[in-house]
Amino acid sequence: MTISSGKLRAFASSVLYNVGPIVAVLLLWELSVRSGLIRAFFLPPVSDVLVQLWESITSGQLPAAFLVTTKRMLIGYIIGAGSAIVFGLLIGIFRPLRNFFYPIVAAVYPLPKIAMLSIFIVVFGVGDPPIIASVAISSFFPVLLNTLTGLRSIDPILIKAAEDLGANRFQVTTKVVLPGSLPMIFTGLRQSSAVALIVVVAVEMYIGQSGVGYLLSWATEFFKINLLYANLFAIGIFGILVFRLVDFIEYIALPWARER
Amino acid sequence: MRISVSNVDKRFSVRGREVNALNKASLEVRDAEFLTLLGPSGCGKSTLLQIIAGLEPATGGKVSFEGRRTASGPVTTMVWQRYALFPWRTIKHNVAFGCEMRGMPRGERMARAQHFIENVGLIGFEEAFPHELSGGMQQRVALARALCNDPEILLMDEPLAALDAQTRTVMQVELLRIWDQYKKTVVYVTHSIDEAVLLGDRIAIMSARPGRIKEVIPVTLPRPRTLDMLTTPEFHKLADHAWNSIKEEFDVAYGASKEGQSQ
Ligand SMILES: Nc1ncnc2c1ncn2[C@@H]1O[C@H](COP(=O)(O)OP(=O)(O)OP(=O)(O)O)[C@@H](O)[C@H]1O
Ligand SMILES: [Mg+2]
User: Is-contact B61 B5, C-beta < 8 A?
Assistant: First the structure.
């Protein structure tokens, strides 16, 4: 057996292991609906959902909705996660800032951020801004807390070693503290991406005039059951793509922290 | 360069309780000497080394360096027991770290790093990350990183303690070879009496905590040292001497900890 055919086999079996169970569940779903075990009124056959999904995609309805949702999510995420990294590094590195802000962060963190939505609606009115603001504030805290944890988790011996080798305080920060906390920052980014997706869809369902969440609530309201499931499928696939993207960025950015 | 440690005290306060780590520790380290430092666990060896390195302030006493400077780098550089390599830097960037901090131009410092990577036998691993290397290889990187920094004095804190017995022996031979090449002043902390005799020009024995230098034993074995010497009567005589001296301190340390338990 040559190496390449071995690799092919490994790839084929990994596809089988990952996709196999999903296909099995879908088949079970199809069969139980077609056989009348479950009423198609609540759960349409998978094949119908897939046909609807295909139609929604080719008609441009779903791509347009995802474009709008992705834009809101991305802007909110970048604002929230980006400011969390900057803020986290500042209060993590400068003691006085930390002493001042830490109690505030600890007090605000447990609040369900989604409750802020009402304030955002009052402040921003309708349209994109309250949705973006909701995503931003919910992306903020996971990144902030993980950044702070990352800063604290650095092995003090590495800091001593850097000082011993001649690094000054600034260099210790940029060459040791910062790179050392990147894995935890990425953990925060991954958590936040999941939260951002949940929040953007939820807020769109609630106040959106467009986007995937809006499409979902519209389908619910008019009981378009095929469309409802097709949208859920699409959101699921979109979610997987988002997580994969974050993983891929981490893989590229942190070659030294790759799975061992 | 020579090191003169005179009457160094060190007290830590641990949750309100004072711990006396060093009490009037005095030691002279000669120029280009390989001095090994033996002592019971917790007697303050690492603390003394870090005070010499300037990483910890002494509570009392003084450390001074005397003699002509010959190296281009700092006065001292440490080699740590747990290697303390930067996990996010490749081997060559770990080795070049000190030079980079001092602002040496990139081309120059990378060439320097390459030289020391070759010298410790790690050709081909320049682009690897520390976690991809074995413990022995990581300690070679740590050694190359310290040498690349070109200090007057190398301070080594149990650099081989985390390695298995065979790798440790290989590394002892490596250290002897490399020390012969650069002839730097070395203070080398170890728990192994054999290692202290094999590597050292002199062995400084520390007392149980609070640590002070209790005795300095000159090692009369000729250089270059080889592993064959481990079986000579001369070697045994020196090892016995060191063992008897340190055994008294183990007894003190053990007695003290038993006393501590009964309180
Ligand atoms: N940062 C610190 N804070 C408080 N106490 C400390 C600190 N560092 C060391 N000590 C105490 O000082 C004493 C000497 O510690 P040190 O690490 O120097 O011993 P050592 O001789 O190197 O021991 P070992 O052989 O186990 O490495 C110990 O009792 C230790 O608890
Ligand atoms: Mg120690």
Answer: yes
